[in-house]
Amino acid sequence: MRNRISATLVLIFCMACLSGNMYAQGDIMQFDPDKKDRIEVGINLGAAWAHGDLTNNDNGPKIGLGVGLHLRKAFDHIFSARVDLNYASYKSEIGASNETKTTWLGGDVMGVVSLNNFKIDKGEKKSNVYIGAGAGIDGFKAEPDATGNFDGRRVEDIESKLGVHGAFVAGIAFKVGKNMSFGVEHKLITPVGQRADYLDGVKFFASGGSSPANDVMHFTNVNLNFHLGKDDMVDPLYWVSPLTYIYKDVAEVKARPKLDLTDTDGDGVIDMLDQEKDSPSGAPVDTRGIALDSDGDGLADHEDKEPYSPPGYEIDREGVAQVPPPARMTEDDVIRIGQERGWDAAAKNASSIADWFLPIIHFDFDRYNIKDTEVGKLYQVATVMQKNPSIRVVAHGHTDKVASNRYNNVLSYNRAKAAIDYITMKYGIDRSRFVLNWGGEDSALIEASGRNLINRRVEFRVAGSETEMGRPEGPEAGRGSSFSGNRDAGY
Q1: Would you state the torsion angle of the CA atoms of residues 171, 174, 177, 182, taken in this order, to the nearest 10 degrees?
Q2: If you placed Cys at 480, which of 209, 320, 368, 377 could pair as Cys (CB 3.0 to 4.6 Å)?
Q3: Which of 263, 181, 191 is nearest to 225 (CA)?
Q4: CATH architecture, domain defined by 2-251
Q5: Do the beta carbons of residue 16 and residue 184 sit within 8 Å?
Q6: Planar angle of CA 139, 142, 146, nearest 5 degrees
Q7: Which residues contact 263 (CB under 8 A, 6 or more apart)?
C-alpha cells in the first residue's frame, strides 16, 4: 500500500514538472509593478498518517486521506502569509490485532518564504519553491477497536478538545496556465503539550509513565491553485522576480524613438517635432515649426505687410486692415460718452457736510473740565467751523453708569456745556452756532456698569434739525474748571 502511494506521488510530481516546463515555453505574461497582485486559493488532496512512538512489534501507521483548503497572499516578492484548513483520517496498528482510527480537524496561519525568489532572474517565475512555519488550533479523536493493555501499553478512547499546534510546510509549485498553478508539498503538524502524544492512539506505557516521544502528523499532498482577482491585476508577487521593475523601465527607454536632429527647412525646429517641414527660409515659426500668423488674418507674418493688424476689420491682399477714418467728436459727444462710462459718478456719490465725522472727547471720572489730551480734538472742531461758517454743530454729552440717572443727566449737560464754552472762548466761534444736547447714561457705547472712560464723552456732529436742550432737573453734578468770557463770542 505504501509503495503504491509513493509511486503515485512521484508520478504526479513528474507530471507537474513537465506541465510547468511546457507552460514556461509559451508566452509569459509581463508583470506591471504599478498594478495590484492577485490572491491564491488552493485545494489540497493527499496522504495523511501519524508518526509516533509505536514499537517494532506494531505494524505502524497506515496511510489515510487528507484534504484541505488554503488562502495565500503575498507581502512582497519573497514573503507571504497563508491560512490553511485541513481534515485528516488515518489508522495505526498497535500490536498484532488492535487498530486505532484517528480523525483530525484543524486550521493554522503560516508565514511562507519563496526560496527561489532570492535569485534575481527573468520577470516571471516558472516554479515556486517555498517553506513556511506557523501555528494553529485543532481537535482530534482516536478510537481503538478495543481498549486495555496491549504489549505493556495502555490503549483507550482519546478525544482531544481544541488545542494549539505548530505547523511546518515545504513544497514546490509550477505554473500550468493563466492564473493557475499546480504543486506538491509536505506538511507537518505537532500538537503542543501532553496531547502531543495521543495522535498514534497510544496514551501510556504500563511500565513507566508517559510514552517518550511526541507524535507528528504528516500530510503529503498535491494542490491545485487559482489566482483570483480583477482582470487588471497581476499574478501573486512570489511568481515574479523583483528585477521586473528594472525590466519595465529599460523597456520603456528602449521604446522611445531615437533622437534625430535633422532640420530640413532650417527653421530651428527638428523634423521629429516639425509639423511644417517646408517652411520658407527666414519665416518666423512657432514651437511646432508652423509659420507664424500673429494677427490671425490668414496671411503668415513673412507675407503680411501689417503683421499686427487691429482685429475686426477687413484686410487687403497685403494684409493691411481697412480701418475707416475716425469721425469728429463735439464737446457734447465727449460729455455724453463720459457720463455713459460713469466719469461723474464720484461727484454724484460725494457725501454732504452732514456726513462729516467730527472728533469725540473724553473726561475723567465725575469731572467735566477739559483734559489736556482732548484739546487737539476741540481745535479740529473749531477749524472745521471756521472754514465752513454756514454749518452748526451739535455737542452731545454722555456719562458712564455710576450714580443716579438724574445726577448723570446733569453731568452730561455740564460736559457738553464745558466743551462749547472752551471752543467759543478759545477760538471765537459764535455760541449760536452750537446746539447743546445731553444723554446721561442712556447712550453708552459699551454696555458695561461702573466706571468706563469710553462712555464719559461729548460727541460732535454737523447739526441738522436738532434743537437746543436746556439744563435737566437735578442737583449740581461733577467738578470742573471755570472759564472767563470772550467778547467776540458773545459770552
Answers
A1: -30
A2: 368
A3: 181
A4: Beta Barrel (2.40)
A5: yes
A6: 165
A7: 269, 270, 271, 274
Is pTM beyond 0.85? Reply is no
Class of domain 357-462: alpha beta
Tell me whether the CATH fold assigned to 2-251 matches the one assigned to 357-462.
no
Task: Spell 236-254 as b/e; 16+ CB within 10 A means b.
Answer: bbbbbbeebbeebeeeeee
Domain ranges of the chain: 2-251, 293-344, 357-462
| Predicted local confidence at residue 170, as pLDDT | 96
For 213-256, the pLDDT digits (tens) are 678 889 999 999 999 988 888 889 888 877 766 767 777 777 77
Write out pLDDT tens, residues 178-188. 889 999 999 99
